[in-house]
Amino acid sequence: MTTTPPASPEALGETYRSLWRVGERALREATHQPDGIPEHGSPRWGLSLVIRVTGAPREALAAELAVLAEHCAGPHLVYRPEDLHLTVRSVEGFADEVAEEHVDHYARQARRAVRGLGPLAVTLRGIGGSPGGLFACGYATPALQQLRHRLHADTPPGGYLGVPGGDARRIRDTAHASLVVYRPPVRPEAALADHVSAEADTEYGTLAVTALSLVRYRPTATRVAMEELARIGLEY
């Protein structure tokens, strides 16, 4: 299988800056996009393979989350530190119930994909966002894209076992950790936009990845509520 080389840190940085230019304008003009509670069949918030943010990076981002909450004019969903993560791949869309055989299938798939994988680490630097929310900008070692390509290539011929997810026909190319999901009502948020722009170069540390987590979400108006269903260790 031919794979696309991961973007350089410079190119990825420009991707984040481009996203934020649009996201900042949306915040200032009150055109940002609030996200509702998912229902069965939604392509978002489904069964996902993620990297949990732990250690010093989580502590640094926990402090940032508190500041972001102070700057939010609306009742947005601000992540709790224990729910911070980077999505490797959304393996299914949102379902009211997740079958145990689906969990077993995707856990086995992930274990195959990590065999022989090089060291995986993610440096978190700067806050950014899009019209849909705010995130910490991540810069990963090449192993992340290699892992994503392996998982994509190993998708069953018939597609997803359950509800199709947002990654059905794509391979993600960023390594961001979501921090804020917008909730209604929509109103101009200049103070929040100013703060995010001021944190564009703030360092939050480097995450040395030792495991992946297969998780499901039970989102509410105020919480992501991430539940770990399986853990896949990485051996270097």
What are its keywords?
five-stranded antiparallel sheet; 236 residues; globular; alpha+beta; 5 helices; Cyclic Phosphodiesterase, Chain: A; 9 strands; 24% strand; four-stranded antiparallel sheet
Tell me briefly what this model is.
The chain is an alpha+beta fold and 236 residues long.
Decide which structural class fits the backbone: alpha+beta
Work out the radius of gyration: 17 Å
**Main β-sheet, spatial strand arrangement:** 2-6-5-4-7
Q: Could you say what the CATH topology is called?
A: Cyclic Phosphodiesterase, Chain: A
Name the CATH homologous superfamily: Cyclic phosphodiesterase
Share of helical residues: 25-40%
Structure in words:
This protein is of the alpha+beta class and 236 residues long. Helix content is 31%, strand content 24%. The strands form 2 sheets. It has a 5-stranded antiparallel β-sheet with strand order 2-6-5-4-7, with helices on both faces. β4 and β5 form a beta hairpin. α1 packs antiparallel against α5. It is globular. It starts with 8 loop residues before the first helix and ends with a strand. The model has no long low-confidence stretch (mean pLDDT 93).
